[in-house]
Amino acid sequence: MDEVRTEAWWGRRAWALLSAVRARTPLVQCITNLVSMDIVANAMLAAGASPAMIHCLREVPDFSPRCDAVYINVGTLSEDWLPSMRAAASSGRPWVFDPVAVAASGFRMEACLSLLALRPAVVRGNASEILALASRSDDSFKGVDSSHDSSDALQAAKALAQSSGAVVAVSGAVDFITDGMQVVSASNGVPMMQKITATGCAVTALIAAFVGADPSDALVAAACALAIFGLAGEIGMESARGPASLRMHLIDALYGLDEQTVTSGVKISLLP
Amino acid sequence: MDEVRTEAWWGRRAWALLSAVRARTPLVQCITNLVSMDIVANAMLAAGASPAMIHCLREVPDFSPRCDAVYINVGTLSEDWLPSMRAAASSGRPWVFDPVAVAASGFRMEACLSLLALRPAVVRGNASEILALASRSDDSFKGVDSSHDSSDALQAAKALAQSSGAVVAVSGAVDFITDGMQVVSASNGVPMMQKITATGCAVTALIAAFVGADPSDALVAAACALAIFGLAGEIGMESARGPASLRMHLIDALYGLDEQTVTSGVKISLLP
Amino acid sequence: MDEVRTEAWWGRRAWALLSAVRARTPLVQCITNLVSMDIVANAMLAAGASPAMIHCLREVPDFSPRCDAVYINVGTLSEDWLPSMRAAASSGRPWVFDPVAVAASGFRMEACLSLLALRPAVVRGNASEILALASRSDDSFKGVDSSHDSSDALQAAKALAQSSGAVVAVSGAVDFITDGMQVVSASNGVPMMQKITATGCAVTALIAAFVGADPSDALVAAACALAIFGLAGEIGMESARGPASLRMHLIDALYGLDEQTVTSGVKISLLP
């Protein structure tokens, strides 16, 4: 593309994608962890998408092909859900991968590597998760929350994008999104969002909704979804008195976002 | 019955049933989908019922007979939960059925038809679900949210009630409840409730609580539960700034409903 | 210990333990029921802990030994999760047990007795649960909510503590915590907390976080966690308009607790 990707360009793209989600109501199959179900579904509905938490292997052949996108999250991985994850990821629909706590066990690392081989459109993780996945090592596990800054994982993200063919997003105080060549940063959000469980899951599901509404450019979709979710967090923070009220105000804000707020509020830029 | 079912009569019945739930604290076994667990449990507690999410097949023989009612919801159906659903539905207690996304797959349609044969007291779905269940066809699937108006499904609901022996409720902007002969409409609620995940599950669980508190008339119980939940949504909407705050205010309102509010607020009528 | 355990002493201990949780961010594996996942994770994050809901048996050998504590809750018990519970309880980490609705079935009673034999650091239940567990009988089951006052279960709690080697906490309007010899009471909290699903699960998880941050005295950790959670409920109640807003304000309050509020607010005393 020859167009110059200014901050204003990103603002227009973010609004166009959110509008596409609202207009097309993409149906997104979510095979996600048990902790995240409520916030994932509510965030997607607030954004205008249609989430469907369906994880039964026998339903995948009928159901997954009808979806606009698939979201897979291994937070509460189990042996009986893994075949459904693999089948849904293989259904031919664009899919987005959240390798939660990938280094928690050897079993989880293997499961994530096997899913990664099924060519997700986007992988989104925190810095510790992306570092572990890129190195294929669970040596550094410290818990489900990241013990690294997102910038620590930038080279790992680029390498992972190149080896997997996926867009890789590392979330943190600044989010980095890369296809292995270009790197985009998204700087919306507030620190207290990390005190709400499954906000990472919710934003990754939102990436799936954006990809489902417009699969033409997964890098742009991922950056815009991350920025918009963070922007909703910033607006929510104005009314919040703690993490539980932030959660409520964030989802309300996501629902109420208008063109002016989005185009002027998202902070995305292409790194040189 | 010879009494005339005026709007005032319905108001008094709705209040009497809510009061019965609060006084008797019906124990309701809920085998419900993973997304809905939190809002189902909290809505039932706010209404005065005692929910118990117990889905293990080995517990059904001891536990289900102790319950006042059973609620079964297939939203996140799996092969290992289906036998528990069947066993609980066969326990001799009145039970209420929520055939979420019945047309999502052939497996789900078959599972729902097998449950329907176990004679639920009430089936509650959106128009798309009732149409699919009545026609035994999954051709029209568009997602878990309805792509039809409730009035589109009225004839299907009557036919389904006649063939199944259940009261059938179709929820939408106006809810219709029928035993195959009479049709009652309930018109409470606000559109934004559809932007909160699992409100349909929560109101169906509330129907189970009402049936558990007074099993004498499932048609009346279903209509009153739908109207009361919708009324709580209307009250919640007065303070809401989006779907997440609506969810909170709805449950607070359900907890705080008083006689004057219920008797004057429910909008139920018998269709001619 | 020779120090006199005045109310002021308890206030200082409670603050010291909450500060330890915030400083050390204990990683707590939670194998908990499906209803409670959201509130358990959010309450733990608000308190400063790092929850990880991981229940897959194949992950236990790698993951459980890395945790500071384990929390096990049988609310939605199933045959396939029980081996994971047993394995995590046997991993050598201190663990806290929530025998939700232990008397709901013979299967559940047996499962709880088998877990109890694996020497939890703390068992926390309502009066009905502790009475049933101590008597090994499911005759009295009335539902997941308690049908007894906590004081009814005090002798049962002492006997259970002596036979199991665990600290036993009975929660209610007044919580009692005993190691079989000493009995401590904690009197924080508000009645409406019982109208929020899984508050009992959340406070038991918080006990696990406190034990994880400082395993030196499980009796003190349990009493302080119960009092602090109740204190957050009292503060939340000042802004609540019903159970759903109480839930939000409680978690916000838990996040915001400061030294003055904790030291002057917890109501713990050693019974003579």
TrEMBL record, chains A, B, C:
Spell out where the chain crosses the membrane.
Answer: none
Enumerate the UniProt keywords alphabetically.
Answer: ATP-binding, Kinase, Magnesium, Metal-binding, Nucleotide-binding, Thiamine biosynthesis, Transferase
Pathway involvement of the protein, from the record: Cofactor biosynthesis; thiamine diphosphate biosynthesis; 4-methyl-5-(2-phosphoethyl)-thiazole from 5-(2-hydroxyethyl)-4-methylthiazole: step 1/1
EC primary class: transferase
EC number per UniProt: 2.7.1.50
Q: Name one GO molecular function term.
A: hydroxyethylthiazole kinase activity
Q: Which family does it belong to?
A: Belongs to the Thz kinase family.
Q: What is this protein called?
A: Hydroxyethylthiazole kinase
Organism expressing this protein natively? Lolium multiflorum (Italian ryegrass)
